[in-house]
Design a protein that fits this description.
single chain
């Protein structure tokens, strides 16, 4: 257990941490105070210049933007010190001057005593941010050609991968990223990015492997959520739900996904619990919000669907009421318009009735007393077919068509005769003169 005095001693030994805290708080005076003794305690001009560059960098981060000019002057005075040049670039980047940062690195690299590879990799990242992936790729490969150090190679491979990704050379990018992970297997940020990109390209088994590695390294939240998504893609819903639940304490996205799964199976109350839990973690999470919207929308959709199905059921009952065999049916001829707005044009003799349904489907009907058996088809080379049965009584056609208008549907047709056929004019286009 440490007291206040011990804590002060710990803080005195770590001026950089104090400066970082002050920079985060946007307190440039706090940065000055944290690093003054650190800078003054340097035992050489070179070390003092390097520490002063750290001080000026944090001051810029804290909001004292003009200090970037002092940092540039320091780099001019000590052109061979790579740390000063790097911090100048980082400072410029922090105020949105990416191009200036990249150009400073390129101009000053030839004068550096060391750090050429580090500055090349840093410039590669900046060039990529500027929309210059070809330049970024060249810089990354320059760095890779001039180092065997594992950490330097990993940094170069990562930037090479991002440049290749921007150039849509994704397989090459995967190779660069995988090689970087061989050198730095604990780079969870890169592994997560690579796993996600694999899943985007359909390499779900590779994505699954990386997500499982990340979870074995102790990562939860979004990692567990994405692992659950991958497991579900492979038809493992039980494992997927288990992972979603593990992720739930840290991931609003996981709660949103669980809510969607529950809505799909109709468990709305349970889904609402996950929506509330997700909102508590991240109020504006899109996946959670879409689940909330979906509940209302699907309730409306299901209500409309239920109404339509009930209406169809009622009409089919009415049709079956008339499908008795005690009373003979009539031979339909003319245009019949149904309650649902469909038009059936039919004519001919009882054993050879033909016509059109909604001007799209060819209809043939045969009288199998007292019923009419319908065959429907459409299409030229590949025909879509449907069938039906009906009966005509008192000028009303009571019929149902199966697999119409689409496969799996049974559609009622209760149609009144709206335009009877006559001997002078048929509803269909008939030949007006007899063949010679």
């Amino acid at each position: 257990m440490t007291g206040a005095g011990d804590q002060e001693k710990v803080e005195d030994k770590d001026p950089e941490s104090k400066a970082i805290s002050a920079a985060i708080d946007r307190d440039p005076e706090g940065v000055d105070a944290a690093l003054k003794g650190f800078v003054d305690g340097a035992d050489s001009e070179e070390l003092r210049a390097e520490r002063e560059s750290l001080h000026l960098y944090f001051v810029v981060l804290a909001g004292r933007v003009p200090a970037v000019n002092q940092l540039r002057a320091l780099a001019d005075k000590h052109p061979a010190q790579s740390k000063i040049v790097e911090r100048l670039a980082y400072a410029l980047e922090s105020i949105g001057e990416n191009r200036q940062a990249a150009d400073e690195l390129r101009t000053r690299r030839k004068e550096l005593a060391d750090g050429q590879l580090t500055t090349a990799v840093l410039e590669a990242r900046l060039r990529l941010a500027l929309g210059e992936p070809e330049s970024g790729l060249d810089l990354a490969r320059y760095a890779l050609e001039h180092t065997t150090d594992p950490n330097d190679r990993a940094a170069g491979l990562i930037q090479e991968g991002y440049a290749l990704e921007a150039l849509k050379r994704r397989i090459e990018a995967f190779a660069s990223f995988e090689q970087a992970l061989v050198l730095t297997p604990g780079n969870s940020e890169l592994r997560f990015h690579l796993a996600y990109e694999y899943s985007q390209d359909g390499f779900d088994s590779v994505a699954l492997s990386h997500y499982e590695t990340l979870t074995s390294q102790g990562l939860k939240g979004s990692t567990a959520n994405n692992l659950a998504v991958a497991l579900r893609k492979f038809g493992m819903p039980i494992l997927a739900v288990e992972r979603f639940k593990r992720a739930g304490d840290d991931s609003a996205q996981a709660h949103g996904n669980l809510a969607h799964l529950l809505i799909t199976d109709g468990f709305v109350d349970e889904a609402l619990k996950h929506i509330k839990a997700g909102e508590a973690i991240e109020e504006m999470n899109q996946r959670v919000a879409s689940a909330a919207v979906r509940i209302g929308a699907e309730r409306e959709t299901e209500a409309a669907k239920h109404s339509d199905i009930s209406k169809v059921g009622t009409q089919l009952r009415d049709i079956f009421v008339h499908m008795d065999t005690r009373t003979p049916g009539e031979t339909p001829a003319g245009v019949f318009t149904s309650q649902n707005g469909h038009n059936l044009v039919i004519e001919g003799v009882p054993d050879g009735l033909k016509g059109k349904l909604d001007d799209e489907w060819d209809v043939e009907a045969k009288s199998l007393s007292p019923y009419l058996e319908f065959s429907l088809s459409k299409g030229a080379l590949v025909k879509t077919r449907a069938s039906g049965r009906g009966i005509c009584r008192d000028g009303v056609l009571f019929a149902y068509f199966q697999d119409w208008p689409s496969t799996g549907m049974t559609t009622p047709f209760i149609g009144s005769l709206t335009k009877p056929n006559s001997s002078e004019q048929s509803t269909l286009s008939l030949q007006e003169t007899r063949d010679a």
